[in-house]
Amino acid sequence: MKKTLVVSISGIRGIVGRGLDPEVLINFSAGYGTWIRQQAEAQGAQPKVVVGRDARVTGAMCARLVMSTLQSLGIDVIDADLATTPTVEMGIIASGAQGGIVLSASHNPAEWNALKLLNGTGEFLSPEEGQAVLDFAAAGDFAWTTYADCGTYTRQDFLDYHIDQILALDFIAAEKIAASNFTVAVDAVNSVGGLAIPALLKRLGLRDEQIIVLNGEPTGIFAHNPEPLPHNLADIMQLVEERGADLGIVVDPDVDRLALVENGGRFFSEELTQVLIADFFWRFREGPYATNLSSSRAIEDVAAQYGQAVHRSAVGEINVVKKMQAVGAIAGGEGSGGVIIPDLHHGRDAVVAAAIVLQHLANEDTTLSAIRATMPTYAMAKHKTAIGKFNPDDLLARMAERYASERLSTIDGVKIDFADGWVHMRKSNTEPIIRVYTEAATAEEADALAERFMGELLEG
What we know:
By secondary structure, the protein is α/β, with parallel strands linked by helices. It has helices at residues 22-43, 59-72, 85-95, 127-139, 159-167, 174-179, 193-203, 234-243, 273-282, 298-306, 317-327, 350-364, 368-374, 392-402, 443-457; strands at residues 5-8, 11-15, 48-53, 76-82, 99-103, 112-118, 153-155, 184-187, 211-214, 247-251, 258-262, 267-268, 289-292, 310-313, 331-334, 338-340, 379-386, 407-409, 414-418, 421-427, 433-440. It contains 15 helices and 21 strands. The strands form four sheets. It has a seven-stranded mixed sheet, with helices on both faces. β11 and β12 form a beta hairpin. The longest helix is centred in the first third of the chain and has 22 residues, at 22-43. It is globular.
């Protein structure tokens, strides 16, 4: 089998045993640990790292390798064990650790795993931080400790703390949610969402009989493709319809993305999750929103209704976070269903997003289908085109020059905004392709726009 390993400043992911091997895990964990020790020394502190994992079958095995490596560098380890990515991020804040590692390949299939690397603020590493980790890993000059200086090991579950902080937010009123008597279906794709989301719902006042859990056992044997897209979610859509549920909550394996199913069983586009959250906030707060260049323009349409601004960043969670911090955004996110609430922390968090959705429905005394009927509707197409021996930067530069008279952004590839749609072209860092994302009024128009620009990219 071909070895598969993708190394970037945001983390290391691959197929376990076919690229993401023990020596790889140890090397990159040691590179990260060396960077952590540098941070701790600058603070005059004992280095400490929180480690958590989703429910993948390989998770416990990989986590043991990672934690032992960190301890061998004199770093104290807090084992959060089965935990959502946002829960680990909250654990870093709660424990005062210098960073954290999440063993999760997000929506990738079960044979994949990854090291998701976090800094001392619970955020993904910046490009500079990530490059420092890669440089330490490449150098391989690690300061292994003797028996007297090994790091300590403790276990701590941060889920209760995470939910406590959500319920303490001034815009969450659990008693109002409880009084609404919602029936909620949950698809946890056999991972840690099966622990986190029902626990949240119970703390929000829902009774056991109001919570219908599908694929809730955290076995790591995913019942379906774990990416929360409509063609993977037929079972929960049918369940919501048959049981007359008010809402379906769908999360990915590490619970940083939220997709929804409307009452009646229709999929509520993951591109609209962040739009729904922004609509919630703008009803009682003023302030800008930040998202990436590849997310739906529906967010601008809703912002216009409230006279608020939307700021766009390069694709990638940390890029959205940095944009949020620069403009003072009240919230942010990505069209993949990722929502970032700075009142809580600067990370995509489907747990707090689920609470906000229920609060919104309770506040407005309405249904998700009724809200959907008031929202703008677009169709997106996501394609890629092979470029062979061509230089992707040259191809993108030519497109930017050709469309210089249009509304254009070159902060992340080339994005062109037309009156009736947009196209975003970005090079891949791992294969000789250019990704071409488009949005238009209909699926046919979005596909046609993508086909047009894939052709233009390779024209002489």
